[in-house]
Amino acid sequence: MQETLTMVLSQAFDLHVLLAVAFGTFIGAAIGALPGLTATLGIALLVPLTFSFQPLVGLAMLLGIYGGGIYGGSITAILIRIPGTPASAATTLDGYPMTLKGRAGHALGISATVSFFGGIISVIFLATMAPQISKFTLKFGPPELCVAALFGLSMSALVSGENMIKGFVSVLLGLILSFSGIDPIVGCPRFTFGTVDLLSGVPFIPALIGLFAIPEVLTNMTSISSSPKIDQKLDKIHMSFKEIKRHGWNIFRSSIIGVFVGAVPGAGGDIGGWVAYGVAKKTSRHPESFGQGSEAGVVAPEAANNASTGGAMTTMLTLGIPGDAPTAVIIGALMVYGLRPGPMLFTSHLDLVYSIFVIMALANFCLLFYRFIGAKHLARIISVPKFILLPVIIVLCVVGSYAIQNNLFDIRLMLVLGLGWYLMHLCGFPAAPMVLGLILGPMVESNFRRSLIMSEGSVSIFFTRAYSLVPIIVLALVLLSPIVIKWIKRARKARANK
Amino acid sequence: MKKTVMILGLVLSLLILTGIGQGMAEDKFPSKTVTIISPWAPGGAADAVSRYLASLAGEYLGQPVVVVNRTGGTGQVGHTAGATAKPDGHTLTMTTVDCIILPKMGLGKTSEKEFRPIALITFWGAGVQVSADAPWKTLDDLIADAKANPKKYKVATIGPGGIWTVGAEGLEKEAGIKLTHVPFNGAGPGIVALLGGHVDIATGGVAEAWQQIQAGKLRCLGLMSEKRSDFYPDIPTLKEQGHDVVVGAWLGLQVPKKTPDDRVKILHDAFKKAIDSDAFKALMKKQTLDIVYMGPEDYAKFIQAQSDFFDKVLQKP
Q: Is B160 in CB contact (< 8 Å) with chain A?
C-alpha cells in the first residue's frame, strides 16, 4: 500500500503530467465555450496526438479537456444564454438573468467555485466508492434506463419556462424530432423525408445552436436600439466563505445527484444538471426566485454537471461502459494504451487508477485557477456593444453547425429550427427541454422497447422493479404536488369560511 | 444607425466565411481527419479494433483518425451512415457480417453491395455466456432447464438478423429450446446486462466477455466454433457437447462503393501497415482476437462467398 502511494504520487506529479493537465483544461474550456464544439469532439481529435506521449500524460490531457469542456459550456450559457455543451443548458436559467442584472462576474465566480467542489466531491466518491457505485450502475437495465431518461426530461420540463405544460410540449417536440433517422431496434429508416442527411437522425449540435442561439439573437436584434447597455459589476467575483456555507447543502446535494446520474450509462451532465436544478427549486424556500437570477439556480446545475464527470468515469473504469459521450472516447484511448477498463483494471493497474483520481482532482484545481483569472475578462465580453457581438455570435453558430459533419445541411437545419423556434420562443416555450428530448429520445425509446420485449409486452415491468419504480413515484409526487397543495389550500379555505 | 452597422457587420462576416470555405483545395489525400464509423457500441470487439487501428493508422495516413459510434438497428444505422457517406475516402466503416445478413431477411436496406472492401481484419467466434452465479454448470444443464421453461430465460442479442442473434437461434433450433431475445446495440451492452442480471444468457463473441470471465463474474458454457480456441483451451465447443452450431463474425474496413481506386489503395496500404505493426498484434492478443488479414480482392471474394452461404442458410425453414 505504501509503495502504491509513492508510485501514484510520483507518477501523478510528474512535470509532463502536470503540463498536460494544465494544457488540457485550458483547451477544454476554450472548446466548451465555442458553440458547436463539445468536449467529446475535442477529446476525439486530440486522442491521436496523445499516443506519442506516455499513457498517463495522454490521459491527463484528455481528462483535462473533459473537465474543461463542461466549464467552458457554462461560460457562454451564463454570458449569452447559449450553452456551449448540453450539460450547461440548465445553467442558462439563472445564469443569464444574473448577467442581465449586471452580475455576470459573480455568476462566473459561483460557477467556478461550485464546479470545483462538485468535481472534487465526485473524485472522492470515485476513489472511495467505485465498487459500490458500479454495483448501483449494474442495476440499471432497460426499464431503469428508460425511466431515468424520462425523469431527467420531466425535470427539465417542470423547471423551465413559464409553466409545466409548455415545458412538456417542448419535451414532446424534442422526442418527436428524435424519431427521425433509423429505427434503433429494427433498423429501417423513418421520418427521413428521403434525404441522406437525416438518416442518422437530427444532429443535436446544430439543433442546440439553432434552438438557443437564433431566438436569442433575433430577440436582441429587435430590441437593439432600445436596450440599455448593462453595466457589469466586476468587483464581486469570488464567493466568500459565508456564501459557500450558505449554499453548502445545495452544493453537496447537487454533487451527489451529479455523481449518481453521471454513473448511469447514457445519462451525464445533461440530465444531472436538470435534476439538481429541479430538486433545488422544489426544496427551496423561495422557488419563485428561480429563473430570475437566483444564485442557488446557478449553484445546483454547476455542481451537478461537474460531479457527473466523476460518476461517468466510475462506470467507465469499473465496468468498461461509457457513462456519457466523452467517456466513450476515453475508453478507446485507454484501450489503445493497453489498459482495458473493467474489473481487471483495478487489480492489475491499481496505481494507474489512483493516478487518474489524482489527475482529475488536479484538473479541478487548474480550472478553478483559470476561472478566477478569466472571470473578469470574460464578463467584459458582455460589455461589447450588441451590434458587434451579435454578428460574431451568428458567425460562430454557422461555423459550429458545419464543424461537426462538414455538411451544409446542418447549417440549414440550424437556421430552420432556430427560426421556427423563435415563434415558439415568443409564445413562452422553453428551448432546453426540446434539446434534451432530442438527445435522450433514442435512450428513452430503445430502452422502452427493450423493456417491453423483456416483459413480453407487459408495462408492469416498470412498476415491479425497485430502481424504476422509485423514480416513477418521485416523479408522480413532484408532478402532482402543486395540484395536491392547491386542493389542500382550497379545502382549508372552505373550512375556514364555514 | 446602430442597426445598419450591425447588419453590415453580419453580411461582411458571412462573406468572409464563405470566402475562406472555398479556398481549401483537396489535392492531397487524406486532406482532413479520417473517420471510422463503428456500427456497434463501445465494449464490443468492433469498437475496440476500430479504435486500435485508428490510433495506429493515423501515423501512416498523415491525418488523425477518429472513431464515431453510430449504433442501432443491428448495425444498420452505422452501415447506412457509412455507405451513404461522401465517397472521398475520408469515411470508412468497420463492417461486420450482419450487413450481409440483414438485407436478405428484409430487415435493412444497406447491404455489402453498397461498399468497397479495404481489408478484412479478424474473425472470431460466439460463445454461450452466463453469470457466474447461474445454476447451470454445463451447457446441457442450461438446455434442460430451458426446455422445461420455454421463453423463461432471456438472452441478450444484437438485434434481429445479427450474427450473434443467429448464434442464439442456432442454439435454440439445435437444442429444441425457446428463449426470449432482448436486443442491444452490440455485444458490449449485452454483457453489461448479463452482469446486472437483466438477462440470463448472452451469445456474443467470447473475446468481449473474456475480461469478465477472467474476473470470475461470468462463465462460458461453450464455444460456437469448429474446434477449441488456443486462447481458451478449457472451454469446450458446442460441437464436442453434441450440438452442431458454428457461428463466427468478422470485422473488415470498407468504404462507400464509389470511392476512387487510388484512394482505396492509399487507405489499404496505410491500414495494412497498422495491422502488421507489433503494437496492433499485441493489442489483438490481449483481446484474444486472431488477426486474419485479407486484401481488397480476397476480401471481396470472401464477402461474395459469405453472401452465397447465407442465401443457402436462410432458405432453410
A: yes
Read off φ and ψ for residue A43, nearest 5 degrees: -60, -45
B65–A contact, CB cutoff 8 A: yes
A182, A185, A395 ranked by CB distance to B13: nearest:
A395
Q: Which of B42, B65, B195 sits opposite A322 (nearest CB)?
A: B42
Pinpoint the alpha helices (H) of A179-294.
204-222, 241-246, 248-263, 269-283
Q: Give A453's contacts in chain B (Cβ within 8 Å).
A: 180-183
pLDDT of residue A2: 65
- Would you tell me which residues 4-43 of chain B have a C-beta closer than 8 angstroms to some C-beta of chain A? 5-6, 9-10, 12-14, 17, 32-33, 42-43
Which residue positions in chain A have pLDDT lower than 50? none
Contact yes or no for B73 and A185 at CB 8 A: yes
Q: Closest-CA residue in chain A for B50?
A: A332
Alpha carbon of B240: minimum distance to chain A alpha carbons (Å): 30
Of B268, B303, B300, B295, the residue nearest B53 (C-alpha): B268
Asked if omega into A83 is within 30° of 0 (cis), the reply is no
- The residues with which A182 forms a beta bridge, in sequence order, are A189
> In the block, which residue shows the cell 468572409?
B16
Q: Which residues of chain B have pLDDT under 70?
A: 1-3, 5-6, 9, 13-27, 315-317
* Per-residue confidence (pLDDT) for residue A303, from 0 to 100: 92
SS3 of B13-79: the string is: HHHHHHHHHHHCCCCCCCCCCEEEEECCCCCCHHHHHHHHHHHHHHHHHCCCEEEEECCCHHHHHHH
Contacts of A388 in chain B (CB under 8 A): 6, 9
Alpha carbons A482 and B6: distance in angstroms, whole number: 45
Report yes or no: A388 at the B interface, CB cutoff 8 Å. Answer: yes
Q: Cell 469570488, residue?
A: A238
> In whole angstroms, what is the distance from residue A391 CA to residue B16 CA?
12
Question: Which ranges in A179-240 belong to alpha helices (H)?
Answer: 204-222
Nearest C-alpha neighbor of B156 from the set B189, B178, B125: B189
- Structure confidence at residue B23 (pLDDT): 44
| Distance in angstroms (rounded) separating the CA atoms of residues A381 and B78 | 41
The answer to whether B196 contacts A139, with C-beta atoms less than 8 Å apart, is: yes
B124 has which bridge partners?
A: B249
Per-residue CA distances from B152 to A70, B145, B159 (Å): 44, 9, 19
A184 and B73 in contact by Cβ < 8 A? Answer: yes
ipTM for this model: 0.78
Per the document, the length of chain A is 498
Q: Kind and range of the H or E element at B144?
A: helix B139-148
